[in-house]
Structure formats: structure tokens, C-alpha cells
Specification:
Layout: H1 5-19, E1 28-29, E2 39-41, E3 50-51, E4 59-65, E5 75-79, E6 89-99, E7 104-113, E8 120-128, E9 133-140, E10 150-155, E11 161-172
Length: 175
């Protein structure tokens, strides 16, 4: 599966257009959006992606969590494979849902350092439901970061449920 920027930007064009000034540059995709490329941690065996025609790209990654321990004990990292400049406006777009009924939370969807101390650059929590929804979290890079030094990270261990992630696109709109 390969999602283009146009596909994801088309899905998010209305909120972006309403929430921000004109972009200084065409947004640049900073990651591989395919759920098969994501790094799951805190679970053995590591879950595999499944086919799901209900989500953009047709693939999803179900992650069963227990809620035991810290919220970051089980999660997903999406490697950032391009450099980021200080002051760049970054948006993490991601598809997510809850398998089952009710609601659950993703404690944090964030941009963070890819190695210790895993410092958060920006992020926030979201509430997910059984329906696929496109979420977005935005912020500004506080410094320049070489490729491979950041991840989009999702802290999922918030209860006994299955969180499902679809495509994730981290876009850089420049300064």
C-alpha cells in the first residue's frame, strides 16, 4: 500500500484550510504511512496488520492492551525518515478506532525523540470509538532534527481493549 500526500491532504483539506493560514510550502510526508511499517512495543508476539476496507489504505494494525502498568508500556512508533528544521509546522494525521463497543483513549499521540529520554516535542490524547475516524495532532518543531531521530508515537495502554490504527501520515508544512 502506498498513500500519496494528495490522498491524505484531500481527506484533511477542510480542517487544514479552516484552521491555518496559507502554507508556505507544499507539505512533505515524513514517514511511511503503511501500518506494516510501524514498530509495536510492549507486546509479544507483535501483532500483524489485517485487511480492513473501512479505512484509508485498506490495512490496519490491531493492538490488544490490558491497562496494566504505565500508559506508555504498550504502544506504536512510526519512524520519521526525513529531517525536520526548527520552526517547521508538523501535523500527525492518523486513522484510529476501538474494536468493540464504547470508547477508549489513546493517552498520547505525539512527536517524540526516537531514543532515550524519548522527550515529547508535542502531542495530545484522543478518545476513540468503534468507527474509523481521522484524527490530527499538530505542533511546531522546537529544534532541527536529523532523519531517524524522531518518531510519531502512540501510547495505547489505557484499559482492557483493542485499539486499531490505520494509516499514519506525518506532514511537514515548513516554517
Amino acid at each position: 500500500m502506498k498513500l500519496g500526500i494528495a490522498t491524505l491532504m484531500g481527506l484533511a483539506a477542510v480542517p487544514v484550510a479552516l484552521a491555518s493560514a496559507p502554507l508556505a510550502q507544499e507539505p512533505v510526508m515524513l514517514n511511511n504511512p503503511n501500518p506494516a511499517s510501524f514498530q509495536v512495543y510492549g507486546l509479544q508476539p507483535v501483532p500483524k496488520t489485517i485487511a480492513d476496507d473501512g479505512v484509508e489504505g485498506g490495512r490496519a494494525l490491531p493492538i490488544a492492551v490490558t491497562g496494566n502498568g504505565n500508559v506508555w508500556a504498550i504502544g506504536v512508533n512510526v519512524p520519521i525518515i526525513k529531517p525536520i528544521k526548527a520552526g517547521d509546522k508538523i501535523t500527525i494525521y492518523f486513522w484510529a478506532k476501538l474494536q468493540g463497543t464504547g470508547t477508549a483513549s489513546i493517552a498520547s499521540a505525539q512527536l517524540q525523540l526516537a531514543s532515550a529520554p524519548y522527550t515529547r516535542i508535542f502531542g495530545e490524547g484522543v478518545t476513540i470509538t468503534p468507527q474509523w475516524k481521522l484524527y490530527q495532532v499538530s505542533g511546531v518543531a522546537d529544534a532541527a532534527y536529523p532523519r531517524g531521530t524522531l518518531n510519531a508515537a502512540f501510547h495505547l495502554n489505557t484499559g482492557n481493549h483493542v485499539a486499531v490504527l490505520g494509516a499514519v501520515a506525518v506532514l511537514d508544512a515548513g516554517a
